[in-house]
Amino acid sequence: MKKGLLAAALCIFLAISPAAFADQSNYGCGLGSMVIDNNESLVSQTFAATLNGCFANQLFGMSSGTSNCDKPDSIVYNEKINIFVADNMDSLASDIAKGQGEYLDTLATLMEVPADQRPVLYSKLQNNFSVIYPSDQVTHTDVLRNIEAVL
Amino acid sequence: MAQSPPDLEKTIERIQAEKLHQNPYWHVLLHYQKQGSGFKSRVDDPSFFLAPDGKTNPKAELLADVRAFYQPRDADAEKPHAVRRFPARFAWIASQIGDSASAFPVRECPRFEKIYAAMAPDSAALIFPSAHINSPASMFGHTLLAVEAKGQGRLLANAVNYSAVTGRTWGPIFAYKGLFGGYKGYFSMLPYYDKIQEYSDVSHRDMWEYPLNLTQEELRRMLLHLYELDNIYSDYFFIDENCAFNLLYLLDAARPGANLAGQCPYIAVPVDTIRLALKGGFLDGPPVYRPSKMTRIEHLRNGLSGEEKKLAREIAQGEAPPESAGEKIKTTEKQARVLDLAAETASYRYTRKVLPKEDYTRRYRDILAARSGLGRREITPVPEPAGPDSGHLSSKVWAGGGANDGEAVFRLGWRPLFHGFDDNPKGYEKGAQIKVMNASLDYFPEKDRVDLHRVDLLDIFSLAPRDAVFKSLSWRVATGFHQTIEPDGSRGAAYVFNMGGGISKDLGPLGLGYVLAEADFAATPGWDMGYGAGPGLRTGLLADPAPWLRLRLEGKGTRYLLGDDHTALTGLMESVIATSQNTGFHAQALFQRSRDFSNTELNLSFQIYF
């Protein structure tokens, strides 16, 4: 009974606008490649958020999402760093510009930089922001190469 | 080998003698719930069971599994061995039968061990992304789990999420299927930073991370169980068998005897996961608050003057170059703050698709380049609001009394879900109301009469303040049975449907001010033609001056043009005074005028949440 009433109420409400469900899966390797809000209307946001990530995926068969990107030719950087930088381009750029932040910390962790050497690393990266990000067209591969070059 | 392998039948005998199929942990692993005199698993995928009647027969399933575990290593070339398919069940059964376990021909699952080694789980946290502003279903929030490796940090954690698999569907069908189990729910695992992007950066939902006190052994048991649930579906029900409910099984699998799923209320809302985990002793210290991009933008703006905010906006919109921050603003601190705000605003506008990608990437990069020249600046943390666990429970009853046009009246009410403007404000998203089945009765002792005061089947009200950056809309939709004034001045009841949209503004100490244009429909046999429909206007103020205090003032007018042609006016003053997390007073004065008649109602009630 309760479910029936609620269903009726929700149906009335949702009939107002056809809900659109976004395929939020546009990962890439440049700036601006984060997931963006593909919901077209106010009402369509309704359930997409609750049912986020609506995919029947393989739990333990994660794909990196970077298969279309160039692999850096440097041996210094492992796959994990590549994936992390590619997936978090915008947030990492912001942290590098500020010389601090969780994304920068994570990069340092992946690069296995000990805590006492991080302040030096962070200010070096911050001071060389324009070298690491010479234009808005940089890919994560460029970023990693440029980081390696300034270190 | 030190001892001779006991045979299968002996093990089976032992399991039967010990009634292992009645063990609560077996019921956790198979998601069995009591149903009538028997049991039924909440899992609907047939491949989760080896016995033909495994879904409803814990004993048959246990015996079928044990038999399968005794199969020789290469009994079936097509399928993986049962031990490799169900390593959690195997580990538990082996631990229960002690020495006899060494007789199993296969005793390990290499694929799981590889994954386990790669994940190197060290700790876990329950994650609660709070309400999505303006999105009613997500007003309940969501819960997921983050499993962290030692020394890797939270961002690199694996987020374990249970969600329904839906396609593009027309709204009502979607709602219907969601409520009645028409969708399949699966567990998924993604990097936690993806979830942060999704919730914090795109959906603008603040997140709460509750650390769990799971030991290594418990984490292993949890992942073993999760491994068995890989690609296994359960029918998804929004109301009960949802994300909140299914995560409880993972905690139950981690810690035998916890039985959180069994304690879950009939209607599970995501915050119940947190509450049950807290009650069950799973939480380890206070939560970590992760403000959303929207909250971060608001925080950055709070420290700036009008001029500075304007400059940040112009930089974000490309109307001023990032360098102008250095020219127009004196201190380096403020320059940095203006540029940080400009970068976040540009990013916000991009995720809302207001700013095209090419413009965004160029501008974002240039703002950050200017920012990088200002050195490392102290970042003031975003003030942490009260966490969702500090909010009232989802159901409420209330009792009180007052006067209706001078006549004494006693009132009783009940509301199973969830939160409204007449509730204790602490721990809930400000300006978001979602009430389901809100019902109250009035008793008039002088006449010895009981009246249905009102039934709100559904009442959603979303106030999202609008300003120069956030062009948010506010809206409401409500339907139910309300008291009305009949053409002869007597009190009656009508079915009403009301929806509207408008804007709200943050008026500082006055609270949120709002104005909505609405459409009203009311049906009641007492009215001319039996109904009335027409436009309405609603305006009000909602203020939470303290975590224990809420005030609201509202005026509403409806001009019924169709059906019974008349005008109705309503004025409301209400206040909530919380006396504890789950108790409080609600005082209300309601004035109604319709045609030439009016009605004044005063009420004071005590509210208890449960």
From TrEMBL, chain A:
It holds the Pfam family DUF3015. Residues 1-22 form the signal peptide. The keyword Signal applies. This is DUF3015 domain-containing protein. It comes from the Bacteria. The keyword Signal applies. It comes from Desulfatibacillum alkenivorans DSM 16219. InterPro entries: DUF3015. Keywords: Signal.
Automatic annotation (TrEMBL), chain B:
It comes from the Bacteria. InterPro entries: DUF7840, DUF7843, Lnb_N. It comes from Desulfatibacillum alkenivorans DSM 16219. Residues 112-279 form the Lnb N-terminal periplasmic domain. Residues 387-609 form the DUF7840 domain. This is Uncharacterized protein. Residues 19-96 form the DUF7843 domain.
